[in-house]
Design goal:
Two copies of one chain form a homodimer. Chain A has 246 residues and is mostly helical. Chain A has one domain: Chorismate mutase, AroQ class superfamily, eukaryotic (Chorismate Mutase, subunit A), CATH 1.10.590.10. Helix content of chain A is 70%, strand content 3%. The first copy, chain A, has ten helices and two strands; from the N terminus they run H-H-H-H-H-H-H-H-H-E-E-H. In chain A, strands 1-2 form a two-stranded antiparallel sheet.
Chain lengths: 246, 246
């Protein structure tokens, strides 16, 4: 049992340190708006796959009970620790501004209270462990996406520092938010994730195509992006930029 | 750090014990050929999603070096321990025949030496941790599918015990294998997973449909099933049946 524990820990920790390597390789010269966006597009697939996998199970609320013996603090400290560990490593490869930005507590709260109830059925099938593992996958994917805002912001800043610098010095949050927002790009993202949810979440059968029968409602996926994932990413971008010249 | 380790272990262990609950709930009366097949069909999605996620990375062979410091024994004992722990729990909910059947060492060998090189590019991008985590996901999904052969065999046995009993008593492996094989069903599975790989692995874009550009070659996915996953599942079925009357 001790052996299993030790080995399982190794895998889990390594899973958290992945960004270290990839970030290290991509450091300095690769933070272009284009390369960062390409990564965000690929991350959409991971987020949508993980949401579809979680939707196999109903809410399974005992997973999150504070006193459910097998998963102590699952909805709280466990997730924060794992997610924060990830962010701490990621932040090391950016301007020092990055290290002070961490919105995981907020992501966790929004995920459990607002997002999750939208795409799982109410009920309990006893699969608490798989449920916890699936939640963790989604949270890691979403947290990664939102904190990727630091790279997005760095890329945007490098593209046009003269536009950003005066606004940063003036701490003009409103003008900064406007400058870093591209309504057109946002609309494309929202539409694309809806299409991806349609494609990846359809029931695939040989005899007949079951159109309109999705494992997760595609409109919900686009709502997750529109209402939370995009705004929270932009908030990370904003916070990063405000500290960029410190 | 100790806290993180402890908590990460909890998630990992729970992830392994999931089948305990689901199997307990489905015990006794739900092992019909139809219900077992429905589970296998849903498991296809999980396997294909995980293969697509793994294919994001090249082979990354240092992940598997015996002396790669961060992942000791990853290609060997680590995986066996995690996977075997899963199977030990699963087997508890079946006829005693189940507990003696475990083909994880073989699955691991086939996976790394034959399956994996078919769907990843040769190369090294440094993402060893994500690579290890992805391999573990696929191995868990494939191991679950193959050892599900115990449930498949139990369901088939219950459906027509009079056909199976004399062959089991005679230890007639050849006739048993013939009896539990449905060529028609196998062909449907192979075609369906190919179609699923086409659907789930396509590049989804708003402007244009990129047909024929798949993240994993669909023909490879059907080959994984035809050449290894289906035969190995049938072998588990056969071994289970041979012990069914002990």
């Amino acid at each position: 049992m001790m052996k299993l524990r030790f080995m399982a820990v190794v895998v889990m920790l390594l899973s958290c340190t992945e960004r270290h390597k990839s970030t290290a390789k991509g450091s300095e010269n690769e933070y272009t708006v284009e390369s960062v966006r390409a990564s965000l597009i690929r991350q959409e697939d991971t987020i949508i796959f993980s949401v579809i996998e979680r939707a196999r199970f109903p809410l399974n609320s005992p997973t999150y009970h504070q006193h459910y013996a097998s998963i102590p603090h699952f909805s709280g400290s466990l997730l924060d620790v794992v997610l924060d560990y990830t962010e701490a490593i990621q932040a090391k490869f950016l301007h020092t501004a990055a290290s002070s930005i961490n919105t995981n507590k907020n992501i966790r709260k929004v995920y459990f209270h607002e997002m999750l109830p939208l795409f799982v059925a109410f009920g309990d099938d006893g699969n608490y462990a798989q449920t916890a593992a699936s939640d963790l996958s989604i949270l890691q994917a979403i947290s990664r996406r939102i904190h990727y805002g630091k790279f997005v912001a760095e890329a945007k800043f490098r593209e046009s520092p003269r536009d950003y610098e005066p606004l940063i010095r003036a701490k003009d949050r409103k003008a900064l938010l406007k400058l870093l927002t591209s309504k057109n790009v946002e609309e494309i993202v929202v539409k694309r994730v809806e299409k991806k949810a349609m494609v990846f979440g359809q029931e695939v059968s040989l005899d007949h195509d079951v159109k309109g029968n999705y494992k997760v409602d595609p409109a919900i996926v686009s709502r997750l992006y529109k209402k939370w994932i995009i705004p929270m990413t932009k908030n990370v971008e904003l916070e990063y930029l405000l500290r960029r010249l410190d």
